[in-house]
Amino acid sequence: MTNNTTRLDHVVLWVADPVAAAAFYETAVGLEPLRVVEFERGEAPFPSVRVNEETILDLAPHTSAERMGMLPGSADSAGHPVHHVCLSLPAGAFDALRARLEDHGVPVSAIDHGLSGARGDATRSFYFRDPDGNVFEARHYDD
User: Fold this and answer.
1) Residue range 1-19: mean pLDDT, rounded
2) Strand order of the sheet with strand 32-34?
């Protein structure tokens, strides 16, 4: 990648309990938690989980909505999950994620084939929800 390439840095998800959300993403999804202890100590406004070396998911508590003054009306978005976030994984990691979610009792959708995305048509995709109702798609491409 070059420095002039636009990349996805982070997505902020509204969650009821950031610590529980971080635990879900760590145990059921397999993502690395960040700043959980600092959040519990009141030293960080929210914890995050690492998707890859360049991208994180921030887990913002609903109670932080009143502090969202950067854009008029932005506090009104608290509690409204995004449509969905898509995670692209290699085939083996895709299979491991689906198995791990099922092991944790997380309902998963049927597998779809050929859904279009950033890299063209995906080989396989499925959807799941986190405990706060945020919808995720997991997919992999041939290559």
Assistant:
1) 78
2) 10-15, 56-61, 48-50, 32-34
Q: For residue range 24-58, what is the model confidence (pLDDT) as tens digits?
A: 999 999 999 999 999 999 998 889 999 998 899 98
Measure the CA–CA gap between 119 and 88, rounded to whole angstroms.
10
Rounded to whole angstroms, the Cα distance separating 9 from 19 reads 21
| Distance, CA of 57 to CA of 11 (rounded, Å) | 5
3-state secondary structure the chain: CCCCCCCCCEEEEEECCHHHHHHHHHHHHCCEEECHHHHHCCCCCCCEEECCCCCEEEEEEHHHHHHCCCCCCHHHHCCCCCCCEEEECCHHHHHHHHHHHHHCCCCECCCECCCEECCEECCEEEEEECCCCCEEEEEECCC
Nearest alpha-carbon partner for 33 in 45, 25, 42: 25
In the block, residue with structure tokens 């689906």: 98
Q: Which residues contact 99 (CB under 8 A, 6 or more apart)?
A: none
**CA 44 to each of CA 58, 68, 82, 106: distance values in angstroms, whole numbers, following the listed order:** 11, 16, 23, 29
